[in-house]
Design goal:
The protein is of the alpha+beta class. It has one domain: Peptide deformylase (Peptide Deformylase, Alpha-Beta Complex). The protein is built from three helices and seven strands; from the N terminus they run H-E-E-E-E-E-E-E-H-H. Strand 4 and strand 5 form a beta hairpin.
């Protein structure tokens, strides 16, 4: 397992639509292992392949409470097949936009269909933090960031902070 570098916004790869994965190979399983290791190391509760520079439709999630047993999930080609009309607002953050948070309103419940690492079709209904997280990560696969839900001024302010952060990291 390798901890991969996480791309920081603005990076053009974060705005691209990821390609579907056509089959579960050893390469895909290795990517999933690396993504889980990277996500836990960050630490985060979700990671999409574009965030580590891979433009394929795979995400990892683990929204289990800190003191509980980990519940890692790997979703290949995930898609939302149903969304509730009820909405939830969560303060979201993103590993590609470090230390920036904002309230985002999303459907409170979603049903998601995906392929698992053993190649089987799966589906689950998710609510609470799991629903928010899976929607956030699927957005990444479609080139959308949580700041895209914000008003333009707030989005520009966060983007400027990220440009400054990238400059500082490049000098270090």
């Amino acid at each position: 397992m390798t901890i991969r570098p996480i791309l920081i916004h603005p990076d053009p790869r974060l705005k691209k639509t990821a390609e579907p994965i056509t089959g579960v190979s050893d390469e895909v399983r290795a990517l999933a292992d690396d993504m889980l290791a990277t996500m836990y190391d960050a630490p985060g509760i979700g990671l999409a392949a574009p965030q580590v520079g891979v433009l394929h439709r795979i995400i990892t999630l683990d929204c289990s409470p800190k003191d509980a047993e980990p519940e890692p999930m790997v979703l290949i080609n995930p898609e939302i097949v149903w969304s509730s009309e009820d909405l939830n607002t969560y303060e979201e953050g993103c590993l590609s936009i470090p230390e920036q948070y904002a309230d985002v309103e999303r459907p409170a419940e979603v049903e998601v269909r995906w392929t698992s690492l053993d190649g089987a079709e799966q589906s689950a209904r998710m609510d609470g933090l799991w629903a928010t997280c899976v929607q956030h990560e699927i957005d990444h696969l479609n080139g959308k960031l949580f700041i895209d839900y914000l008003k333009p001024l707030k989005r520009q302010m966060i983007t400027r902070k990220m440009v400054k952060l990238k400059r500082e990291r490049a000098r270090a």
